[in-house]
């Protein structure tokens, strides 16, 4: 039995998807179906928390990993940045330098349990919310997405981890893959994310 731990914010949690419950829940059902068909058992844990930044991640990751540690193996996904890069009340929630340090600290924690760590890109935002302060008080820009994604890519490259580039997959059709709020995917977007992640899950089945 292998555990897959998916850390992230509301996009990991699957917010705004009333049909499938988001990409991680699709993967959870896929792994269960494969187990019933005779594959290895992979237990997918959706550890997404709406609004969370990497400041929250580094506080809870040691406890989450200790609570869910399979002797047969683990793999960890980290999907952060959409909240970190936001400006709220005039200041950046998590600066690029802090973001890099937090991701690196979280990786060090995860490395105690597994070498299989996946870093997930931040999605592009809809043109309707790019540079616009939304109801939550957060202001995000697509320019900042590129800055934070580059940090994730560089860390993945340095540590030989897999970087999952949902950003590029969404970019051309983002206006039809994002929900009305311009930040979260819709059912179609979440479905595409799951399709791109299934080959990784397959490795453990």
TrEMBL record:
Ranges of residues in domain SGNH hydrolase-type esterase: 6-190
GO molecular function: phosphatidylcholine lysophospholipase activity
Protein origin, superkingdom: Bacteria
A family per Pfam: Lipase_GDSL_2
Alphabetized InterPro entries for the sequence: Ester_Hydrolysis_Enzymes, SGNH_hydro, SGNH_hydro_sf
Record-given protein name: Peptidase
Organism expressing this protein natively: Chryseobacterium piperi
């Amino acid at each position: 039995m292998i555990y897959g731990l998916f850390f992230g914010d509301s996009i990991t949690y699957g917010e705004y998807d009333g049909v499938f419950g988001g990409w991680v829940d699709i993967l959870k059902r896929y792994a269960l179906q494969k187990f019933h068909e005779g594959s290895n058992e992979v237990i997918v844990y959706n550890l997404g928390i709406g609004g969370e930044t990497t400041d929250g991640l580094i506080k809870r990751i040691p406890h989450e990993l200790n609570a869910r540690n399979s002797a047969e193996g683990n793999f960890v996904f980290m999907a952060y940045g959409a909240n970190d890069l936001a400006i709220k009340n005039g200041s950046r929630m998590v600066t690029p330098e802090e973001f890099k340090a937090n991701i690196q600290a979280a990786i060090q924690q995860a490395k105690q349990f597994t070498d299989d760590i996946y870093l997930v890109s931040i999605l592009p935002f809809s043109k309707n919310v790019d540079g616009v302060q939304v109801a939550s008080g957060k202001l995000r820009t697509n320019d900042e997405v590129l800055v934070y994604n580059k940090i994730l890519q560089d860390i993945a490259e340095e540590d030989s981890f897999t970087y999952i580039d949902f950003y590029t997959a969404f970019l051309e059709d983002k206006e039809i893959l994002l929900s009305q709020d311009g930040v979260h995917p819709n059912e179609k977007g979440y479905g595409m994310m799951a399709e791109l992640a299934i080959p990784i899950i397959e490795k453990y089945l």
